[in-house]
Design goal:
single chain; alpha+beta; 1 helix; 2 strands; 14% strand
């Protein structure tokens, strides 16, 4: 898995986006378990954007 942390963002490959997001949400829930309810929906907590497209030339 390739992921690069830069300041306030994480750059990763498209196929790893869901895994990275899941791990981030898990960490937030662990860190803030005393303030968040167990069924808090944090799905929109992190913004996911495609920043480039791979172009292959033959």
């Amino acid at each position: 898995m390739f992921s690069l942390i830069i300041y306030d963002c994480i750059i990763t490959t498209n196929e790893n986006t869901d895994l990275v997001k899941t791990l981030l949400i898990k960490k937030v829930k662990e860190t803030y378990q005393s303030v968040l309810s167990k069924n808090s929906d944090l799905d929109k907590l992190f913004k996911v954007e495609k920043v480039s497209e791979i172009i292959t030339y033959n």
